[in-house]
Each structure stands twice: as C-alpha cells, then as structure tokens.
Amino acid sequence: MDERVGLGTIAREWGRIGVVGFGGPPAHILLLRRLCVERRGWLGAAEFEDGIAATNLLPGPASTQLAIFTAWRLRGPAGALVGGVSFIAPGLALILLLSALFLAGDPPHWVLGAAAGAGAAVPAVALQAATALVPASRQRAGGGAGRLRWYGYLLAGALAALLTGPWLVLLLVATGITEIAVRRSGDGGPGRPGGLLPLLLPAASAVGGLGALAWVAFKVGALSYGGGFVIIPLMQHDAVQRYHWMTDAQFLNAVALGQVTPGPVVQTVAVVGYAAAGVAGGLLAAAVAFAPSFLFVLFGAAHFDRLRADWRVQDFLTGAGPAVIGAIAGSAIPLGLALHSWWQAGVLTLALLWLLALRRGVVPCLLAAGALGALAVTAGLPLP
After folding, report:
1. For this UniProt entry, what is the primary localization, expressed as one broad class (predicted)?
2. How far apart are CA 220 and CA 165, in angstroms?
3. Of the four listed, 38, 122, 228, 251, which is most buried by Cβ atoms within 10 Å?
C-alpha cells in the first residue's frame, strides 16, 4: 500500500459499515473486503484473507477484530482506534435507544408484542448459528479418534450450556487444553515441541453492581471463543438468575436486538448493561466487552502470522471449537423454555422453518417475528 489513508477517511468508511452492516460477521467481512480490497485496493486479497484467519483464532467478536485489524494495517494504532470505534458506535447508539424503548417501565402493548415475537424466534437463531459452524469444525477434527473427540466436545459444550451457566468458559478452555494434551501425546503426529498454550483466566468477581457487570462483559469480550452467539449462555445465567438484572423475556429481547441492529452481535451485552444500570451501564458493558479486541490487535497484530503457525493454538481451537458449537445449540433449550405464550410457539416453528429448512436470513426472520408479535397482541392475544 503506497497511499497514506487519512484518519477522517477511516472514520467515514468504517462508520458507514457500522451503519449498514446488518447480518452479522458474514456481512461485515463482505463489506470490509469490498472496501479494502476491491474498491480502494488498500490491501491485497491474500493479505485480507490472512487477516480473517488470524482474527478467527482470537476469542471475542472476530468481525470486530477484523475491522480493527484492517484499520491498523492502514494507519497503525491511531487507525485501529478510529476504525474500531467508528465501526462499533452506530450500532451501540441504536441498541441503547432501542433498549430504552423495549425495557421502559410501561411501553405500549404493541412494543411488548413485537419484543415477544422477536424473542420467540431467538432459539431458532441459536440453532441456525450452531449448524452453520458444524461443517468446517468437523472437517478440522479429521477422522478416527479425532472425530470421536469432536463429538465428545460437542456434547460437553451442550451440557455445559444447560448446567454451568457463567462457568461455561471453563469448559471451553478445558476442551482446548485437552486437545493439546492428546495431540502432544502422539495423536497429532511426531516432532511437536512440548508446552501448553498459556492461558490466563481471571477469578470470578465476587463484587456486585458495576463490578459484576464489568466481569460479565469481560467474559463476553475476552473469553468467548467462537464469538457471536456463544455469548448467550455466558450471559443468560448471570443476567437473569444470578443478578436479576432482567427477566427471561427481556433477555430474549436483548438477543433479538443484538441480531437486528447493525454492527457486532456482541453489542447484546449493552442491553444487559442498560438493564443493570441504565445508559451508564450499557456504555460500561460495551467498553469492557470490546476493550480486549482493541488490545489483541494493538499489541498482537504484528505477531498474527506466528500465532497462526503455532500448533498449540491450532490444537486448542480444534478442541474448543466443537464445544462452542455445542454450547450455542444447547442454549436454544433454556431460551425456548423461557417462552410463555402459546402463540410464541407458532412463531418459533415458523422461524425454524425459515432458518433451518429454507436457509434464509436472520434479520428478516426477526423483523417478521416481531411484526407477528405486534399483530398478535393487537388482535387481543395474551402477552407473555
């Protein structure tokens, strides 16, 4: 790249992607590629693909890290900060505004109906997110004993999502370390050096209030291998059962809002923060959740090539990957059990057909489910 890209240009272009980036990581990657590779020629195609591969090795929201990384490639640390904030800010502002509407003390009935309808579709979205990850992860595991371990990790992740709540992250780390140990012992082939992937897992915060909120957001941003939908089992137990910041129905609304707003899906955590402590809580939760992504890029981007080549990292992800998929799929059960009105079951059935049978988009599904919910309540059907 010969031209020096201005910070104003980065703010404008990354902000535009943050505004129009509906559809989650696939949409974000496509928009970034069109901008950086096809339209402006700032990065080569191979360089951009390497960025995707490297950021997918990291915990947390991969498409956000890719946005930060591509801006870093253009203007270093200043570009990373400007690009990342510009990418995150539009969706964050919108989701906080919607939180104020959907979590208000006495919102209109049609708003509650729209929320209940969109929330009814969320278990189907979780299943769709999990099934989309299966082929690549299963292929990565290989055959024979590796494939059997893959199914074991998958089952363990599903059970952990149902039974362990906020401690799910320990299971994800354990499966990754187990795979490293197994392959080191000979299953992965001779000639590999010793040593385990160094991992730092902070002790759980015992404080309440904003300290507890910061801890929940930190787990989402720094310890959620697989990004995206794996944040749901990480947050649900804390937000609903442990700290009582939200009801089950409100948590479903939070997940739906994270899906239908542009920008990173991880911004769901801002809704939880808003429920816990208003606008300040939403901003705190977002800042803590996204801070690791900035730090990973600012301090690690120069070492991404070495990270990709490290066999321990690859083996860790081979073990943690199916556990993540199992956790995402397993989260659909408590999400489904949180539905209370009979008509929500009909909305969920339609969502399953739309997403899993017809393989259509998530955002139209949630918008249509919300419209059905608003119509149902307007017609006199009971609210959950």
Report:
1. membrane
2. 13
3. 122
Q: Please tell me the total number of residues recorded for the chain in this structure.
A: 384
160-171 pLDDT per residue, tens: 888 876 677 788
Identity at 117, one-letter amino acid code: G
**Exposure of 243 by Cβ count < 10 A (0-12 exposed, 13-18 middle, 19+ buried)?**
middle
Q: Are 251 and 239 in contact, with CB atoms under 8 Å apart?
A: yes
* Count of alpha carbons within 13 angstroms of residue 278, beta-carbon side: 2
The torsion angles phi and psi of 39, rounded to 5 degrees, stand at -85, -45
Question: Best-predicted range by mean pLDDT among 146-160, 192-206, 248-262?
Answer: 146-160
The residue with tokens 């799929």 is 329
DSSP assignment string, 213-270: HHHHHHHHHHS-TT-GGGHHHHHHIIIIIIS-SS-HHHHHHHHHHHHHSSS-GGGHHH
Give the burial string for 293-304 (b: 16+ CB within 10 Å, else e): bbebbbeebeeb
Distance CA 373, CA 108 (A): 13
Distance CA 60, CA 98 (A): 24
- Give start and end residues of each alpha helix (H) in 246-310: 248-260, 268-300, 304-309
Q: In angstroms, rounded to a whole number, what is the distance separating the alpha carbons of residues 80 and 84?
A: 6
Question: What residue type is 77 in one-letter code?
Answer: P
> Do 302 and 77 form a contact (C-beta atoms < 8 A)?
no
The answer to whether the Cα torsion of 352, 353, 357, 359 is positive or negative is: negative
Question: Are residues 172 and 249 located together in one domain of the fold?
Answer: yes
pLDDT tops 80 at residue 200: no
- Same domain for 135 and 55, yes or no, is no
Indicate if 144 and 81 belong to the same structural domain: no
The count of domains in the chain is 2
What local confidence, expressed as pLDDT, does residue 186 receive? Answer: 63
Q: What is the pLDDT of residue 327?
A: 85
Judge if 137 and 283 occupy the same domain: yes
From the list 221, 261, 254, the residue with the least C-alpha distance to 93 is 261
Residue 141 pLDDT > 90:
no
321 and 180 belong to one structural domain: yes
**Residue 251 covered by a domain:** yes
Taking only the tens place, the pLDDT of each residue in 111-122 is 888 888 988 988
Confirm whether 317 is domain-assigned.
yes
